Amino acid sequence: MITFNKPPYVGRELDYIKKAIANQKISGDGEFTAKCTAWLEKDCGGQSQVLLTTSCTHALEMAALLLDIQPGDEIIMPAYTFVSTADAFVLRGAKIVFVDIRPDTNNIDETRIEEAITKKTRAIVPVHYAGVSCEMDTIMAIARRHHLAVVEDAAQGVHAYYKGRTLGTIGDIGCYSFHETKNYSMGEGGAVILNHPEYREEAEIIREKGTNRSRFFRGEIDKYTWVDKGSSYLPSDMNAAYLWAQLEKADDINDNRLASWKRYYDGLKDLQDAGRIGLPVVPEGCVHNAHMFYIKAKDLEERTALINQMKGAGIQSIFHYIPLHTAPEGKKVGVFSGEDRYTTRESERILRLPMYYQLSPKDVDRTIAEIHQFYKEH
Q1: Are 157 and 133 in contact (CB under 8 A)?
Q2: Which of 128, 137, 259, 333 is the most buried (most CB within 10 A)?
Q3: Which candidate, 110, 101, 130, 125, places its Cα nearest to that of 281?
Q4: Fold for domain 250-377?
């Protein structure tokens, strides 16, 4: 069986977890949290502050708290995204305004954002699908013109770039995921990227249950207390220890995934050239991180048949999100702005192929061969 995903593992994870235990500092903000934070801040260009969180969902929740989102506020985002993108703002009482996606990258269609803006709009949340950047220059120009915040959902975008800038550092706040399905993992985990100094102290307070505990441990105050709203968004140092082993090998992991991605692309390009499938598009100025490789079938029926044939051949392939505006909760808390030209159509075509660190070239080739066989028979 060729599985869809295997969590990344480089070999030093257990050693570092044991060291975290030996340090007698298994709660948050220990040695390994500091190491991961320093690496991420360097990767972000050295101008942003990074705080590890218990998930990307919680990083997004922190963003909603930092922006002081209130009931009735409107948040613009693509309908083609994971539920966490919306949930973080729905929990604050916001109304979600869904916008159509581009058919090439599956990212939010930047040309449809402005028509979705109303007097109640507070923020735009672009989602960098598959680690390929949204058209951020246009999105940032719209946001500045209308005095809106931008929260980058860069859950899939760690170590990926837009015109030389790290994803997550372009908007006001960025959010990463280190879930087991991501390029770099701590099991469950994430990070919030703070791109303006005024967010930093409040973010530390929110992350530490609404207390000024971080300042206390830095020796800046003689006791700490409850000073604002917050929650427990701080991951354990054992989780950070697992992540640190991978960040040490980040370039190796990235190169390995990119090699698999290119092997897929080269092996399937003839089917795209023949008009049988679609392949991922990486616009000029974007540097992706090979978070995923997908193909686009003609329609839902063809994709279902292909999934079944792959399953019969021992290859696990999956489709992705159900568009949020079609979900029961999405219908309650959101509205779709304009016409759904591409969101539903493209969501029914996408098929994700096995992609993970140390995926063997042999398994990539076997997957390619099975797809070719399918289209030969159909």
Answers
A1: yes
A2: 128
A3: 130
A4: Aspartate Aminotransferase, domain 1 (3.90.1150)
Place of tokens 């609404």: 210
Residue from 39, 4, 5 nearest 317 by CA? 4
Q: What's the token pair of residue 114?
A: 């402005």
Please tell me if the domain spanning 13-248 has the same topology as the one spanning 250-377.
no
Return all residues near 374 (Cβ < 8 A) that are at least 6 apart: 305, 306, 309, 310
CA-CA distance, 318 to 30, in Å (whole number)?
37
Residue 167: closest CA among 110, 197, 126:
126
List pLDDT tens digits, range 16-45: 999 999 998 888 899 999 999 999 999 999
User: Residues near 274 by Cβ (< 8 Å), separated by ≥ 6?
Assistant: none
Which has the closest alpha carbon to 67: 99, 43, 103, 91?
Answer: 91
Domain ranges of the chain: 13-248, 250-377
List, in sequence order, every beta strand (DSSP E) within 4-104.
49-53, 74-78, 95-99
The per-residue pLDDT for range 129-153, each reduced to its tens digit, is: 999 999 999 999 999 999 999 999 9
Fold of 13-248: Aspartate Aminotransferase; domain 2 (3.40.640)
* Among candidate residues 215, 151, 213, 177, the one with its CA nearest the CA of residue 53: 177
The answer to whether 78 touches 107, Cβ cutoff 8 Å, is yes
Which residue type sits at 344?
A: T
